[in-house]
Amino acid sequence: MGGGRGEKPSDADETLHLRVEALRADETMQLRVPAPPEPPAPGGGRAERRRSTRSAGREKARAASAVAVASAAGRLLGPLAPYARRIAPYARRLKPVYPRPGRTGWRRWMPSWRQWIGAVLTSCGLLGAFLVTAYAMTDIPSNLNSYATQQDNIYFWSDGTPMARTGWVQRQAMPLKDIPEDVRWAVLAAENESFYSDPGISVKGITRALFRTVGEGDTEGGSTITQQYVKNVYLTQNQTISRKFTEAMISLKLDNKMSKDEILEGYLNTSWFGRGTYGIQRAAQAYYGKDVGKLNASEAAMLASLLKGAGLYDPTLSKANHARAVERWSWILDRMVKIGKLSPQERAKYTKFPDPLKTNPLYDTGEQSDYLVELASQYAKKSGHLTDKQFDLGGYQIYTTFDRKRERALTDAVTKARKEAKRDDPAVAKNGHYGAASVTADGRILAVYGGPDHRKQGYNESNATTVPAGTAFLPFVYAAGLEHGVHKTRGGPATQVTPDSVYDGDDGVPVTTPEGPYWDRSGKKVAAHNDGGKSYGQITLREALAKSVNTPFMQLGMDAGLDKVRQTAEESGLLASSIGPQVPVLSLGNSTPSAIRMASGYATFAADGNHTEPYSVRRITRNGSPIALATPRPGRAVGATVAEEVTEALTDSFQTAHPDAAAGRSGVSGKAGTTDKDTASWYVGTADSVSTAVVVYRIDLAKSLEPLPLKGLAGTSANSVPYALWSAATGLG
Question: Which of 262, 358, 443, 533 is the most buried (most CB within 10 A)?
Fold first, then answer.
């Protein structure tokens, strides 16, 4: 071999040959491999030694952990070892061996019957474990679907007939006890006759629905009533497999938590019946104009048919719908007989299909009724102590005091007056307003006119406090003087005043106090003036009221005390916020009461001096259960004798101004009211213990609430528009 001692070294491009002598058979060749170099001693520094120590520690910890795990597994699995040894042979047999030995052709690839059984049992075990886990992990939602629980509020006239409804949906929940059994079983016969015995779900129905969903891309019914109820109140209407599965799990739990009656009640109150209605109560009203408690089995069967799809079974929509509805109606009745819930004799009575009403009688609010609903809802919340949130959830039945006939008469009269004004002078009529209200002696509001259309003008003309009462306020001054007497000296005793007490009725008479003339802030004497500057000389208070003479009452207010005038007006029904400044013109009507409050004030005199706050709701229920209502009680405003004397003077006023209308009529009193700047014209009076106030005025709502001159809109004293409206509303016109 080259490169030995004494030999010249090989060049880089030369080949090195290793010469090995031939070995004998008994010789052994040994190849000595040098040992690998040992790692350097840990003398490279303190950090290197620390890293080495930590690494060794981690290795020991991992080893110890592995030993511990193995030991624990051994302890746990040790007792199972005998069983595992017994099962092992069978498991080996179930282990698929492909292709199967001893078979030929396609049979080599088919599992054995043992393998089939094993696969089925394993699948069933896994499926069972999955369902148990899913059931345990599924919770019944704590909050119901807000849309499913939303109800409408329905308002009724004083005669109990529906007036209007409010809310996003037409739904009124009813207790199950108030739903007849024929109605319940008509629904059960149509939808789920085994409801009281099933576990809350239908396996057959779910399987069929899943098959159609997977195979044909849609879903089908087959749900129990419990499942339908869960879908209505907890879930969405999305037709998906996941929603169907969740529905089934919740249904199982709900069936164990709630009674069957509770579930049925919820279902009947949340199901869709078409015509914008949810729940059997609203459906009964929408299709037959009656409450659910008055339905018979035939009508119930027709409504039950709608649950299959109102768009296909509402008989009023088309001839095809009618034919389908008749067929299903008959089938449901026969089904009720089959399950023993309707006798054959009863079934024999129902041979004619119960055609429903052509349209839903439960109309939305509109035009004038909006003003009625506004007043009633405000009063209902206040007197029923209901928050806005509670009221908006719905379910309330509000029985109002509004009289349908009076409301119609008042609305027709004002509508006619508006048209005539627009025809005669469109520019003036454009800003015209007509407020009116009728209030009984016991405080019930029977009718109001709030405006032409609430959706265009939310401003309620019957409840507005924007224009002065004018001389329509004089009866309150008269009552204050009769009730409290007058003071001729400061601090002296009161002197009684009677209807026959005489005052100066001349125009321009200065207003005096016990100390002398009354001076205004500009340093001028204050004087009273009559309409047209007319003087009447010495005149009794009763005659002055009958003829609407201003000057005696301006002085009477000063003599009785403006504080007493204010007190009497407020106790009679006028709001404190509407009373004008406490200056001499207070007696001439600088206050701005609404038509409702003026009618209420005059009603106090008709009620022998007892005042009852005006109210628009007499009863409230929620889903049939009564709500406590703080109904106003009468309180003494003025003495009965004073009230009678005021009424007599107002009767004289009515008879003097309208002798023809007063002929042959008793119990009618009233008075016109005018203002200093001709910004309002009133007529307020009482007929048959019902006081009605009408006011005509002009305001440009686009600019301000400042009253404008009437410019003939209210007619003349001989042909007064307010009086014409008042007489029409009271039946005297």
Answer: 443
